[in-house]
Design brief:
The chain has 266 residues and is α/β, with parallel strands linked by helices. The protein has seven helices and ten strands. Strand 9 and strand 10 form a beta hairpin. The chain is globular, with a radius of gyration of 18 Å.
Length: 266
């Protein structure tokens, strides 16, 4: 008999979301797995269709609800449409706009003093869909628009590296997803840049070794949303991820705005 059961599904339950930190999911015996504001950046690599976007959506919505501001870098354009128009959120789906935004954010970081707040209300959250695709597009954009330059790296990629390296101390948290866990670029894009990593049970051995070196891969599971968290101290926690629909995420992130929109459509 399994003395430490895991749920097969975790849906919206406001009692689960009342803590100070966003809920990632539930581990054995319904123990909450949360993301502390001080844990650093998060990488989600679950494999194609494994729930990468769902995890990012859930955490971003809860961060907004706790007073954070969030920028969504979403070249797919529709993955985070639920956040369009919400207070304290910005959605960027054009590579040129993302390039400029990264440079401005990195430059602003250089002029700031280290953050004193420790909770989510003081955080600036950068939600990145398909990190490796974004890096490739930033390089292509720079090559196409500035062919005369001979830089070793595209400025947009350098800015992203700076945010990964130093952003945590200045109140910035990167929530990045990459289904295959492919992280091109310098060491700043490696697993060491992410204090917390979430992997799916269906990722390749190569992805697992890259993102969770030194941690033995758990047994394969076909249960949707059954994921694994690896912390900086090389600790593995298997959990069932919280799933929020786009409408639920929008309601949690800004309940007043969602209620107002519902009244206007009625």
């Amino acid at each position: 008999m399994n003395r430490h059961p895991l749920r097969n599904d975790v849906r919206l339950d406001t009692t689960l979301l009342s803590g100070p930190d966003p809920l990632i999911g539930l581990a054995a015996d319904d123990q909450p797995v949360t993301l502390d504001a001080g844990q650093g950046h998060l990488l989600v690599a679950t494999g194609a269709g494994g729930g990468t976007t769902s995890v990012l959506r859930s955490l971003a919505a809860q961060a907004l609800a706790r007073g954070a501001r969030a920028d969504f870098l979403d070249l797919r354009r529709a993955e985070h449409a639920w956040a369009h128009g919400l207070p304290d959120s910005r959605h960027l789906a054009n590579v040129a706009a993302i390039h400029d935004h990264l440079l401005l954010t990195a430059n602003a970081l250089r002029e700031q003093t280290p953050a004193s707040g420790t909770g989510w209300a003081s955080r600036h959250v950068l939600v990145v869909e398909e990190l490796s695709t974004l890096v490739a597009e930033l390089r292509r954009y720079w090559t196409r628009t500035r062919p005369e330059t001979q830089l070793e790296e595209a400025p947009g990629v350098e800015a992203l590296e700076l945010l990964l390296q130093a952003g945590r101390a200045y109140g910035l948290t990167v929530l990045a997803g990459d289904a295959g866990g492919t992280l091109p670029g310098s060491g700043a894009h490696g697993p060491s840049a992410f204090g917390t990593r979430i992997l799916g049970g269906q990722v390749s051995d190569t992805t697992w070794r890259r993102a969770a070196a030194g941690v033995q891969a758990p047994a394969y599971s076909e249960i949707p949303g059954r994921l694994h968290l690896v912390a900086r101290e090389i600790k593995l926690t298997t959990f069932q991820a919280l799933y929020l629909t786009p409408d639920e995420a929008r309601t949690i992130a800004a309940p007043e705005a969602a209620a107002r929109a519902h009244r206007e459509c009625a």
